[in-house]
Amino acid sequence: MDFYSLQSLLLSLLLFISLFVFSTSLSKERKSKGFNLYPLLGILPDFVKNRNRFLEWSTDILSLSPTNTIVVHRPISIHEVVTANPLNLEYMLKTNFENYPKGDRFIFLLEDFLGKGIFNTDTHLWKIQRKTASFEFNTRSLRNFVIKNVREEIQSRLIPLLLKNAEDESNKAIDLQDLLERFAFDNVCKVAFNEDPACLSEDGKSGGEFMNAFKDAATLSAGRFMYAVPFLWPIKKMFNIGSEKRLRESIDIVHAFADEVVRARLDVKVENDENADLLSRFIASDENSAEFLRDIIISFILAGRDTTSTALSWFFWILSSRPDVEKNILDELKVIRKRNGKSKGDSYDLDELREMHYLHASISEAMRLYPPVPVNSKACLNDDVFPDGTIVGKGCFISLNLYAMGRMESVWGKNCREYVPSRWLENGIFRPENPFRFPIFHAGPRMCLGKEMAHIQMKSIAASVIERFEMDVLDKHTSPLYTLSLTLRMKHGLMVRVKERCDDQ
């Protein structure tokens, strides 16, 4: 019997057992804080049933729990706690930080792709990278380098592409999410490597192999977390078949590109000046093992590749059905331009971006409802008890459901599922929220180092696009389907028709 026949037999046997147990245990079904538990299978049948609406399903269940926390059981003794309680998040991410690392399971699932990069390590390896990165991200020179690259990408590529489409008589719809992803990829590669893959070039083809391989590697790596039967992906990896074969091929392309850049850079001394990228800065800090540098840079590309583009995609989708919010943003931009003597289409500097309080609130509100990273995870090193009374055992896997947290009435009030930018404003000034209620950029010692740079990029893009163009989103009243990768990407993109905005608007 060949492998494929054996695999089919095993899957058929598993399905038969599942159906048998399910059909014979309905009368014995029991619930645990909202989840149905089935003998031997735990929540597996319901997980499979709701896999395509996992976030909505888990949100509904969490909202029924008085503490917004639930305990679940899966096959193969996987014990998990899912929480959307800010007190629990603060306890894990700050108060008892050392007891809740990413954990061996998380690191193992992503190690092929991310290696020992900052987002896939704990303890001393994380501390070494965090210390260097924290210093570099707080330098004015790196901030100026980011602003310069964002401005150039907007003015030389994004705006001309949108303008060309707006002037096209066919008025063909374009995928705005795709444009934003290519923008973000170009930008983060410049910041990380000082290499320009030119993915947002006019033909959209330059640098495509590296970008597409990176996207596939991230999506397929994240898919390992979603296997209903956890031991299937290691079998596929062992025999190099299916998704694991595609993942290996994608990772090979990404690593080959990154290795080549790192090797070339190690042979050239680059001063830590205004034009220094992250790679040069880490080399200057003597963290110069080629593999170590590759892993660090790949992690930073991952962090900057989809997060801002995902956030802006959902923001523009929401904005398409909220002309009142769009008008308020346009009014704010007019005031800023007039105050600073600017014309429509001029670039905004850092101080002007900081004046965009309503735009900041509008983007933050979109991220509250559609967080770029909807679920995060931790592992418990030693037996513990959460502030809400939930018992957490040693080795337990904890899911931090940020998507659900943005929809918890106990956290955001009765209008928690409504888009209300004003909730972020106090006398017209943007008021930051407690990071444990709004952990979009994580919180505690692992708070995202690129938070300010993400806001610079998102506000720069949003302001430049909104003041120049009207975005007619197709199916604006239908919530887009999403793909659960490492970020909350729209499954079929964001199709829009672009129209140049009149001068008097």
TrEMBL record:
Residues 1-23 form the signal peptide. One of its GO terms (molecular function) is oxidoreductase activity, acting on paired donors, with incorporation or reduction of molecular oxygen. Keywords: Heme, Iron, Metal-binding, Monooxygenase, Oxidoreductase, Signal. Its cofactor is heme. The keyword Signal applies. InterPro entries: Cyt_P450, Cyt_P450_CS, Cyt_P450_E_grp-I, Cyt_P450_sf. GO terms for biological process: lipid metabolic process; secondary metabolite biosynthetic process. PROSITE patterns: CYTOCHROME_P450. The keyword Ribosomal protein does not apply. Heme binds at residue 448. SUPFAM superfamilies: Cytochrome P450. Belongs to the cytochrome P450 family. This is Cytochrome P450. It comes from Kingdonia uniflora.
